[in-house]
Fold this protein.
Amino acid sequence: MRVDFYHLTQSSAEDAVAQIGQKALAQGQRMLVVAEGRDRLQRFGEALWAREGAFLANGMAGGVHDARQPVLLSETVEPANGAQILALADGQWRESEGFARVLFFFDGSVIESARLRWRDVKAREGIECRYNKQEGGRWIEAG
């Protein structure tokens, strides 16, 4: 499993998830976006639909078509759409088994807990960790 830490310094989590999601969907992968609160999830959904130059279809978990959604928005880590990628989009870590890749988005308000999580995850066997920072609107791997 690979865990990518995305330190948000220049864009919102909604914009960052849409940017990374666009690349994942272009590769034919499915994604589960997890955040607390239905209103917050709706903002992620709107950002995915409004992505310039892309049509990022998504739906809220709990519907009859969950399995068909390329991007499923949920408050829990339950990939009803068969997602290989999990986006933890609200700065809160959740344990996640069975995903090929976990994307952990966080900003300065939770930097200390993100650092602790980095050390914890990096110490686990079989997990590759990457730290990504924003530079000029792009993501740069920093460690």
Q: What stands out?
A: The longest strand covers residues 128-135. Strands lie at 2-7, 31-34, 58-60, 71-74, 85-88, 101-106, 128-135, 138-141. The first helix runs from residue 13 to 26.
